[in-house]
C-alpha cells in the first residue's frame, strides 16, 4: 500500500519535534516543518509523484536532501533518521505534543526538571502542582494541560475522515482484484461521512469467502491479524486502524449494509417500526415469521417499513425517520451543484500557486467563478496584504479576467477580525472588493462575552460577507473558541451575512450539528476549500459531506448560485 501524504507529513513533523526536544539546529527543524506543511496541502500523492519520476525539488520547501528522504519513505515506508532519533529520546514524550500549549521546548523542560516521560507522569505532575513551580508554567497552563490530556486520548481513538479514506479506497481496490465479489461497500461512520472514523467496516457478498479472506489478511498494510473466521475477519493496520471484513449472502447484503452503516440509534428506531408491523429486522434481512421478505438492498429494507430511502449521512436519529414518514426528507446538495469556490489563497500570501493557476485549475473542475481571498496584513506569518498590495492584486485580477474566458475571478480578502471587532483593512479598500471573508486567527482565549461582541461588531461592517471557519476548531488538536453560537448565527441572518463550511479536512468547520442549526435558522452558507494550492481545490467534497450531514440542500449553499445571483446575495 502506498504511503499516504498524511503519514509522510506525520513522519516529518515527528522528526522536527524530536529534533527540537533534543535541541538541534532550528533551521533544520523549520525545514522539516515546512516540508510537512507542503505535503499536507499539496492534494497530490507524493508516492504517485515518486513513481512518476517527478522532480520533487520543484515543490515548495523541498530541497535535494528532503527529496531523497521522501523517496526513502515512499519506497520503504520507513525513515532511518527518525528511527535513530526514537532510540535517543523516550518514546512517550512524543505523545505529549498532541496537547495544546505543550511545545517541544516545554516538554524538554518537563523531562529534564521533573523527569516526566509519559502522559501518566504528566497528569501526576499537573495534579500535584509541581508544574506550576517551573518558570513559564502557571495555573492556566496546567488547566490547559489537564484538558489536553483528555482531548489527546479522545483524538487517539479516531482517524480524520480524509486519512481513513485513503485506507478505505486502497483496501476496496485491493479486494476487488479477487474474482467472485458480487457486492462490496465500506459501511460504518465512514459511509455516514463523519468527520472522524474509529474503524472501518467492509461488508462483502462473494462467491468465494475463503479466497477473499485469505487475500484480505495478506494486505500489505496489515500489522496484526486479530481474527480470521467464516463470516468475519479483523486486522489492525500499521497505522493502528482496525478493519473488519464481514461476509454476507447476496440476498442479505442490503440488510447487512444498513446494519453496519448505523448509526445504532437510527437502526434501533427502524427496528421498532418493524416490530409494530410484525417484522423482525437484523443484519440478515427483514423477516415476517421465518420468511425473509426484504434485505437484498437498502431501498427494499426501507420500503418494507413504509419509508423511502434515507441517505447514509442523515442516519443519526435526528429527525430523519419522521421526515421520511412525512415525505419531507431534504434533497441533499451534491458536489455537482457547486459552481465556484469562495475562499482561495495564492502566492500573494501563503498559497503555492498564482492567481491564474488557481483560476485555470478551477476551470478544469467546471467552475463558473472563484474568489481570491488572501490574508490581510495582521497575519504577518503568511505575508498578509496591506492596502497597497491589495490594490496591486485587484489590478492583476482585472487583467486576468480580461484574458480568461468561461470563469470570473472575484476580488476578495480573508480579512482578520481584530480583538476589538474592527477589520484589518480600511473600508476604503474593502468596498473595492467583490467579497470579504472575515476570520479570527488570534486571541482565541477571550471570554465568551468578549469573543461574541468581537464577531458581532465585525458583522456590523457593511462590507463583511462570510464568517470563515466560524468556531476556529482543529479536529483532534484544538477545540473552538467560546462564543454565543445562537446569538452570532441570529446576527448573521439579521445582517445578511453568511457562514462558511470550511472544507479543509482538519477543520470541517462548521460541524454538522452547527450546519443543521444554521439551516434550521434560515441562514445560508458557503462551502469553501480554503485552498492554498491547485490540488486542495479537491477538498470541496469534504465540505459537501459536512453540508449533507447538516441536511443542506442546494438552496442553502450560496456557491451553488450563478455568478449574477451570487453577486446579488453578496450585496448587503
List keywords for this structure.
DNA polymerase, domain 1, Beta Polymerase, domain 3, 7-stranded parallel beta sheet, 17 strands, 572 residues, Beta Polymerase, domain 2
Classify the fold: give the CATH topology of the largest domain. TIM Barrel
Number of strands: 17
Q: What's the name of the CATH homologous superfamily of the largest domain?
A: Metal-dependent hydrolases
Number of domains as seen in the coordinates: 4
CATH architecture of the largest domain: Alpha-Beta Barrel
Anisotropy-based shape: globular
Give, in spatial order, the strands making up the sheet with the most strands.
11-12-13-14-15-16-17
- What percent of the residues sit in helical stretches (DSSP H or I)? 40-55%
CATH class of the largest domain: Alpha Beta
Average residue pLDDT: 92
Please compute the radius of gyration using only Cα atoms: 25 Å
> What composes the largest sheet?
7 strands, parallel
Give the class from helix and strand content and strand pairing: alpha/beta
Share of β-strand residues = 5-15%
Distance between the termini: 51 Å
Number of helices: 23
Q: Stretches where pLDDT falls below 50 for ≥5 residues?
A: none
General description of the model:
- This protein is α/β, with parallel strands linked by helices.
- It contains 23 helices and 17 strands.
- The strands form four sheets. Strands 11-12-13-14-15-16-17 form a seven-stranded parallel beta sheet. A five-stranded mixed beta sheet has the order 2-4-7-6-5, with helices on both faces.
